[in-house]
Amino acid sequence: MPFKVRRITTMKKFLLALAVIGAMHVSAHANAADIANGKLLVERNNCAACHGLNMNQPITPEYPKLAGQYADYSYFAMRAYQVANNNPLFGRTNPIMNAQMQSLSQRDLRDIAAYLQSLPGDLVLKK
Question: Coiled-coil intervals in this record (predicted)?
């Protein structure tokens, strides 16, 4: 009898793990970023005015090259500009970027970040 109980418990654990993996898979697709929308948002917000052609030729060295940047990094950087005034521990301050980010949703930020990552760039990731 103990073997049967142990087998049922193992089966329950397996099914629970399978359900969790399935939920993560569905969640990942539900939260997938929209690169086309990211491109539209970048164009609509005139990001090229500072970050340059294809987000890879900033108008001055003070502005970063964004093409090819990891989406996670770009998202969190934009989010930090968005919350700068409300959270000084997390926020970044730059008057232009703070203003640019205010009208965007977190979904928009993810879309922009995915678009930026999709662009070919010449970022130096390792030296």
Answer: none
